[in-house]
Amino acid sequence: MREPRDGASKPSKSASSATSFPLILDIDDFKGDFSFDALFGNLVSELLPSFKLEDAETEGGDSMQSGHLRAPSDMSKYSSQVIVSPLFPEVEKLLSLFKDSCKELLELRKQIDGTLYNLKKDVSVQDSKHRKTLFELEKGVDGLFDSFARLDSRISSVGQTAAKIGDHLQSADSQRETASQTIELIKYLMEFNSSPGDLMELSPLFSDDSRVAEAASIAQKLRSFAEEDIGRHGIPVPSAMGNATASRGLEVAVANLQEYCNELENRLLSRFDAASQKRELTTMAECAKILSQFNRGTSAMQHYVATRPMFIDVEIMNADTKLVIGDQAAQSSPNNVARGLSSLYKEITDTVRKEAATVTAVFPTPSEVMSILVQRVLEQRITALLDKLLEKPSLVNLPSMEEGGLLLYLRMLAVAYEKTRELASDLHAVGCGDLDVEGLTESLFSSHKDEYPEYEQASLTQLYKVKMEELRAENQQISDSGTIGRSKGASVVSSQQQISVTVVTEFVRWNEEAISRCILFASQPAILATYVKAVFTCLLDQVSQYIADGLERARDSLTEAANLRERFVLGTSVTRRVAAAAASAAEAAAAAGESSFRSFMIAVQRSGSSVAIIQQYFTNSISRLLLPVDGAHAAACEEMATALSSAEAAAYKGLQQCIETVMAEVERLLSAEQKATDYRSPDDAIVPDHRATSACTRVVAYLSRVLESAFTALEGLNKQAFLTELGNRLHKVLLNHWQKYTFNPSGGLRLKRDITEYGEYLRSFNAPSVDEKFELLGIMANVFIVAPESLSSLFEGTPSIRKDAQRFIQLRDDYKAAKLASKLSSLWS
Question: Nearest to residue 591, comparing CAs of 560, 621, 613?
Fold first, then answer.
């Protein structure tokens, strides 16, 4: 806000009362940080007393400098009047001031609105001009792009035309060059077609040694063209020189070119050989490059390989044989041969590696040369060595074991095959082009591998036969050196005649070695499974045969002991001397039976150990090789069970004979030791003897002694079945034995003691059925102890023993006197 200057104020803006102060509101008052409070304060600061007093204190009566309003010159006079005036005397002035201010504000707003309208109009005009200018620029740019497109199209067209012109020029030049070369070739062809066998009138090109490469190239082109022409016309190439009918075509040219090419090839080969002897690799490479135009250089490659010392030097070949086999074939062994092959194959690999360096430096296609070289090494040098090393024996007339047998051949074959495969791998690493070196190596052994399973089976059979002959010879030697005389009735089975786990382990070791060769020779899982099954079947046959034979030998001793017992069975009327001799012989037979029993149990134990070895070997080594082939594992398991069934049958029969042997001796002891007075003492009123009878003591002692080997030899269900059968047989024998005697009460007590003794021993059998039978025997023994009137009460709780009890009651010494038959008739009915 500011005061009007020089009468510049408009009448409309000063229409206030005479005492008011005209105000001018400037547009600048509303710019910047506008505050209504500040504007209002500036308007009323000169009219309100509070504002005036504050100004007087701060400014000393000067006019306000902070706002745009200024007081007139007579302010001091007016100020004194205000101080003494009443409160708010300027209300009228303020109202007039506010009215003027409102008019000022309306006027300012009109000015601002007019200004804004003019600006908007100017902006609209300028925007229209700007849009028009942009439209014209866009049209110009579009025209410029069209010009650029036409220019690019023109440039592309010119470029294509230039390229076509260049192609035509290149084609024309190529045709010119071809025509020139064709003219030259026709000229040379006419020279070769002039007369048969005449190569003296040829151009200097074909005789200049410095232009051999060019001459070879031209000769090959001429030869190809001439042969193609003859082929089109169906004219056969003349087979002999001297055909003068050259006018018919190019037959003479073909013949002359063939002769020239042969001559040139031989000349290059001679130069190649001369350079090879001097180790001039550059000259060799030049010759090889030129010779590559003749049959792709095959003649040069084959010639180079054929002239290597390892293929033509006889001393080298003899040295190979001497290194591997030695001076004498009898001295060769698989280990020595393996060392010799390793040394020889290392030498061959080193030689081939050196040749590879030369071949790479000389030949344009070294891989093809290396293929020929490696193939020649395997087919000539290695084959010659293998033919001497591996002489295939006949399966009809087998070589003796003194000569190594079939096993030596198989070991040599395995060593040679393994080492040769290692050589093939080393040669492949050195480089052999596209040659299938592994397949070629397999073909070297194909004749041996075709019949390999038959040889492996024949070898195992031969080893088994030789081993059995050795064992028989040892047994015969021991038998001849002296054993217990047969005349004394002894039957002794020596340890050499027994089944040996060591021998079975040796069978397994042979089989393991054969299986390792099967793994080496078999390339497919199915083939390996076939090999393994055949070899494992040999082991099953050998072990089952060996165990069955061993068990049969042990059974023979049991049979012989049984024959000895039957031989000395006497009648009733014999002299005392004869009876004594018979008793002595019976003792000897019993000793033989006990010895044969122990021998058979040892045989059974070793048979079980042998079968366990076979089963463990099958689990650890064989099954994993059969599992990849469907059905192979199950078939092998079934075959194993079938093969061992013969041994199981022999073991079963032998165990039955063992039971018969034990029972026969028990019967003999009972018959010899049991006395009638043991169960019917004449002094029955005296205190009874509670000891077991002598016969019982002897029988229990015998069983404890003889069955010790059975407890050790048998296991599991076999042991349980054997002891249960033995206990049942003993129960039956004792029942039959006691039927021969009569019993008084004291004898019944002693019988009960015997039954207790037998029962306590038989508990070690862990056979519940046997224990139950002897418990019932103990109950039945009470029939000899109780009074006659108490007999019926004994069977109230155990009716199952009434039948046996009826027979026992008849053995009471008072059976008839007490008329027990009639008294107990109601019990039996």
Answer: 560
Tokens read off for 573: 């009327």
Residue among 233, 223, 215, 225 nearest 291 (CA): 215
Give me the torsion for CA of 607, 613, 618, 621, rounded to 10°.
Answer: -160
Between the two ends of the chain, the Cα-to-Cα distance in Å is 156
- In DSSP notation, 168-209 reads HHHHHHHHHHHHHHHHHHHHHHHHHTSSTT--TTS-GGGT-G
**Helix or strand holding residue 621 (H, E):** none
DSSP secondary structure of 314-375:
HHHHHHHHHHHT-SSGGG--HHHHHHHHHHHHHHHHHHHHHHHHHHHHH-S-HHHHHHHHHH
Question: How far is residue 76 from each of residues 51, 63, 79, measured CA to CA in Å?
Answer: 15, 10, 5
Residues 6+ apart with CB under 8 A from 360: 366
Is the predicted pLDDT of residue 583 greater than 50, yes or no? yes
Q: Which of helix, strand or coil describes residue 24?
A: strand
Burial class (CB in 10 A: 0-12, 13-18, 19+), 412: buried
Residue 564, C-beta contacts closer than 8 angstroms, at least 6 positions apart: 489, 491, 585, 588, 589, 592, 593
CB 268 within 8 A of CB 291: yes
pLDDT digits (tens, 9 = 90+) for 758-780: 999 999 999 999 999 999 888 88
Which of 195-209, 247-261, 514-528, 571-585 shows the lowest mean pLDDT across its residues? Answer: 195-209
| pLDDT tier, 51 (very low <50, low <70, confident <90, very high otherwise) | low
Nearest to 743, CA basis, from 671, 818, 674, 809: 809
The span from the CA of 811 to the CA of 818, in Å, is 13
CA distance 192 to 255: 9
Candidates 415, 390, 399, 544; CA nearest to 458 is 399
Write the pLDDT tens digit of every residue in 663-711.
Answer: 999 998 998 888 888 888 776 545 566 788 999 999 999 999 999 999 9
| Residue pLDDT, tens place only, 422-464 | 999 999 999 888 899 999 999 999 999 999 999 999 999 999 9
When pLDDT is cut at 50, 70 and 90, the band that residue 370 belongs to is very high
Instruction: Please return the burial class of 103, using the count of CB atoms within 10 Å of its CB with bins 0-12, 13-18 and 19+.
Output: middle
pLDDT value, residue 20:
42
- Residue of higher predicted confidence among 8 and 413: 413
Which class for 622: exposed (0-12), middle (13-18), buried (19 or more C-beta within 10 A)? buried
Q: How far apart are CA 329 and CA 341, in angstroms?
A: 15
615-645 pLDDT, tens digit per residue, is 999 999 999 999 989 999 999 999 999 988 8
Please calculate the CA angle 748-750-752 and round it to the nearest 5 degrees. Answer: 70
- The C-alpha atoms of residue 469 and residue 465 are separated, in whole angstroms, by 6
Angle between helices 576-617 and 501-521 (to 10 degrees): 20
C-alpha dihedral over 95, 101, 104, 106, to 10 degrees? -80
Asked if residue 107 has pLDDT above 70, the reply is yes
Tell me the residue length of the chain.
Answer: 829
Residue closest to 93 by CA, chosen among 35, 45, 29 = 45
In single-letter form, the type of residue at position 172 comes to A
Rounded to whole angstroms, how far apart are CA atoms 759 and 753? 10
Residue ranges of alpha helices (H) inside 381-404 are 383-389
Compute φ and ψ for 364, nearest 5 degrees. Answer: -65, -30
Distance CA 372, CA 367 (A): 9
- What number of other Cβ atoms are within 10 A of residue 542's Cβ? 24
> Do residues 463 and 411 lie in contact, with contact meaning Cβ atoms separated by under 8 Å?
no
Counting Cβ atoms within 10 Å, is residue 340 exposed (0-12), middle (13-18) or buried (19+)? buried
